What does this fold into?
Amino acid sequence: MHAQPKASHFVDGRYVEDTAGQEITCIFPATGAAIATVYSATPAIIERALASAARAQREWASFAPVERGRVLRRAAGIIRERNEELSQLETLDTGKPIQETRVADATSGAEALEYFGGLAATLTGETIPLGGDFAYTLREPLGVCVGIGAWNYPTQIACWKAAPALACGNAMVFKPSETTPLCALKLAEIFVEAGAPAGLFNVVQGYGDVGAALATHPRTDKVSLTGSVPTGRKVYAAAAEGIRHVTMELGGKSPLIIFEDADIENAVSAAINANFYSTGQICSNGTRVFVHKSIEEQFIARIAERSTKAAIGDPREDTTQIGPLISRAQHEKVLDYIEIGKSEGARLVFGGGIPQGHEGKGFYVEPTLFSGVTDDMRIAREEIFGPVLSVLTFETEDEVLARANATDFGLAAGVFTKDLTRAHRMMAALEAGTCWINTYNLTPVEMPFGGVKRSGVGRENARAAIEHYSQLKSVYVAMGDVEAPF
Ligand code: NDP
It folds into this structure.
């Protein structure tokens, strides 16, 4: 097995190597085997990437918007044609099951490019009548945008950032997480094949220091980060120093609330998706599952029955439903949290360990459910980013609402009920940026996605993303004489 890219970085339209940077070994999480080596970007590579982005941005901004859209849609078409190859690479890069990567990664990236490719030619300013005089606005790109990605959805994250940025006429330098360096390079190749100017979308590898160098560089006009809250705090502060625009897509500890009148089977499906899909490594996961006391037993019995049948195994196999976690560090972190849950007095209902046959081989953890979890436990307050579901029980709507909101995070929330007015009352009162009624974790490109409170700033997807990748210039037009006091 081998996934070695042609070189570490993709700058100014081609692969570029510089082995002077720190070595980064790319590990296949299912076995722990090294599958590729790349090198962290040196200051010279960072400089070249940003300079080529600045040059390409000027050229790109002079394209007719409809032509920019065509390039993005062409890139989407290439991604769709190459979905199988890209999905296999994503599976090697992340360890996520091929049955997931085939439908949720490159395809989601293609959707973003189709959507924003379609919008590109519609991005206009407005005319403002002023009674004789008038004003108009021009919607202009920001310039060079830096994208910094997390490791859970490397292709999707790169596309969710690049598609609106490029549609608005910006260029991008993207730094993937050092644990998943491979997929964004393919996207860079595809943009060139689709007709984007060399340098429009560059990829540079590296650890946090490379992200920090990009975020503070004088050429950088905007920073869009997907990552944890502590990293977000640092990157936001670094960007503020240069008064740069930011989008912060950060972590969460989201509530999934299941009322007594819910369709139990649908609620169980949603809780499974919200905790075990991608082995629990999804920022918007509903990891605090509040279940009405009267249906707790039934809910837990059913979710246990279904989850213990999940096919855990080699993510390259079509039948595998649960793969490993991303890295040794994440594996240790999740196993530690399971121990913390036990020591805090939560009841381990199923899972809790390394699945049989995977001891010492890859970074596997069983889907795990704790019941009897209370609000003060660390497993109910801290983001674990693994397949660990906490069941908390409640009795009244007011009570569950207050408890659901009692967190610094505010990324997502879900409610299961057949009572329409209650569902909408909850939607109005939940402190979260992305909410669902009677489903969970669906994030179509047409719907804005992002967090409130410490979970982030700005929105990705939908027309809302345009506001974060463009700025308005106001032009006042005088039609008469200029009056002056003397
Ligand atoms: P991290 O916050 O550790 O890293 C995110 C990215 O930032 C990585 O590329 C990292 O590089 C880089 N980075 C680290 N330090 C700095 C710095 N000082 N300046 C600039 N860049 C830096 O997150 P993870 O990769 O561990 O991803 C998991 C987190 O991401 C979770 O908290 C999850 O909730 C969140 N997430 C949020 C999503 C959302 O849309 N809201 C979606 C997906 C994940 P390196 O990896 O090399 O250290």
Observations:
- The mean pLDDT is 97.
